[in-house]
Amino acid sequence: MQKADIAVIGAGAAGLMAAIAAARAAPAHRVVAMDGAARLGAKILIAGGGRCNVTHHVVRETDFNGSTPAAIRNVLRAFDVAATVRFFEDAGVPLKREDTGKLFPVSDRARDVLDALLRTAADAGVQVRHPCRVSRIEQTDGGFAVHAQTDGSASEVTDRSATGPYLTCGGVIVATGGRSVPKTGSDGSGYALLQSLGVPLTPRIFPALVPLTLPAGHPLTTLPGLAADVTLTVVSGSGRHLRRVSGALLCTHQGLSGPAVLDVSRHWLAARDDDPRAGVLVNWHAGTAPEAIDGRLQQHGARPIRRALAPPLPDRLADLLCLMASVDPQHSGSTLTREARRRLVTACTALPLPLTGSRGFAVAEVTAGGVPLAALTPGLEARACRGLFVCGEVCDVDGRIGGFNFQWAWASGTAAGRAAAARLCGSPA
Ligand SMILES: Cc1cc2nc3c(=O)[nH]c(=O)nc-3n(C[C@H](O)[C@H](O)[C@H](O)COP(=O)(O)OP(=O)(O)OC[C@H]3O[C@@H](n4cnc5c(N)ncnc54)[C@H](O)[C@@H]3O)c2cc1C
């Protein structure tokens, strides 16, 4: 059986950062990071389409959902965007800022980000064990006993629970991620580990940044690949506007995707849980008021009405919106009745989407819900279990698209690693 001062469960973005921060803060102490996946860092490798959107040039607490903004801000301060840029620069991975404000490695290679983290962890003295899937954590007199399944002999997986713990340690940092894309190793098993130690979870844990589905055969599903700049509004059953997001929407065979849809998804899914009549309206002319579209239709003259919409809308979408408003796309603008114009303006600026659900955790980029920050100290130590720290996506914090989720992983990992080293190894906080 091995001994460590600090065991980090999960060696993804947050876990590697926590292990590096702890080992740097307490260089004379033993930090072991364990990960159940056969292939480390799968999520970093697939991030940003293989380019890894490492962070965003401005990151605020308002870019996140879940726990309170004040609690999120406290953690973000531990390691800000400038610190992230410096960290990767020092590790040999300079970042570049794109027009959207997203920061990527200059090389455009997610592999460089992962390699830099693994190299920095090794240089700091972190021992990484994988595949090493933690199945149980027990509190002991002196700390914790960690039970794990390891692939000891290349061919067989050994559950050491029966023969005793895999490792004992003074403290544990849980960085097991959420439930999204479980084939990467983040299968949600961390939640049970935390609950068994008395750490509470939010009542709901659900997919976020996830494509949404429409009924089979819905006209929009016949336009896969069609993209438009839209504004999406989540509305309650009584019509109250709950959240508005602008950006690109992409039609798919199953429904809708694209940055605006991913960003709005968690808001609609949460609203729908509370109120089954909650819906999403789409304005196909992002930011344009209905009156402006109405004015355009009225001044269109004798030309076919579809030409009042396309461009800027693609022809196929303009035709579809006319059909949804029961207006012939070839109808002359000047003879359109007021009622037909009203239907067309609604289809263009406030079309209700008959969403049926989401594509689920299999494709969601992040997980909403988890450990509320209120259950943790500012150093991310569990109030219910001293010596146990929590960081990354397993927390009830999910960011919007644009590098915010990795910034949360870097910042919360650093905060947890430093605090664990201070508490367990006596290093300065
Ligand atoms: C397709 C995709 C693209 C994305 N692109 C971006 C992007 O470009 N920018 C951005 O900011 N965010 C992006 N994200 C989100 C980002 O990847 C995550 O928010 C981030 O990786 C979370 O880091 P984490 O370390 O908390 O969790 P994870 O990265 O999920 O790591 C958790 C680790 O814990 C391990 N683990 C789980 N349970 C156990 C256990 N019981 N025992 C041992 N190990 C365990 C897992 O194997 C895994 O390696 C993307 C996500 C996806 C799915």
What radius of gyration results from the CA coordinates?
25 Å
- Beta percentage is 15-25%
| Biggest sheet layout | 8 strands, mixed
Distance between the termini: 30 Å
Bound molecules: flavin-adenine dinucleotide
Q: Which spans of ≥5 residues are poorly predicted at pLDDT below 50?
A: 152-161
Count up the helices.
12
User: How many β-strands, per DSSP?
Assistant: 22
Q: What characteristic shape results from the CA principal axes?
A: elongated
How much helix is in the residues?
A: 25-40%
Structural class of the helix and strand makeup? alpha+beta
What assembly state would you assign to the polypeptide chains in this entry? single chain
Overall mean pLDDT stands at 94
Protein model, in words:
- Helix 1 packs parallel to helix 5, helix 1 packs parallel to helix 12 and helix 8 packs across helix 11.
- The radius of gyration is 25 Å and the shape is elongated.
- About 2% of the residues have low confidence.
- The chain has 429 residues and is of the alpha+beta class.
- The protein contains 12 helices and 22 strands.
- Strands 1, 2, 7, 8, 9, 10, 11 and 21 form an 8-stranded mixed sheet that branches. Strands 18-17-14-15-16-13-19 form a 7-stranded antiparallel sheet.
- The site of flavin-adenine dinucleotide has 37 residues, from helix 1, helix 2, strand 8, helix 6 and helix 12.
Topology, element by element:
Elements: E1 2-9, H1 13-25, E2 31-34, H2 42-46, E3 55-56, E4 64-66, H3 69-76, H4 81-90, E5 95-97, E6 102-105, H5 110-123, E7 127-129, E8 132-139, E9 144-150, E10 158-159, E11 167-174, H6 189-196, E12 206-208, E13 212-213, E14 227-235, E15 241-251, E16 255-257, H7 259-274, E17 279-283, H8 290-298, H9 306-309, H10 315-324, H11 338-349, E18 351-353, E19 357-358, E20 366-368, E21 388-390, E22 397-399, H12 404-425
Parallel strand pairs: 1-2, 1-11, 2-7, 11-21
Antiparallel strand pairs: 3-6, 4-22, 5-6, 8-9, 9-10, 9-11, 12-20, 13-16, 13-19, 14-15, 14-17, 15-16, 17-18
Helix pairs in contact: 1-5, 1-12, 8-11
Residues 9-15, 34-37, 43, 46-48, 52-53, 133-134, 175-177, 180-181, 185-186, 189-190, 365-366, 392-393, 403-406, 409 line the site of flavin-adenine dinucleotide.
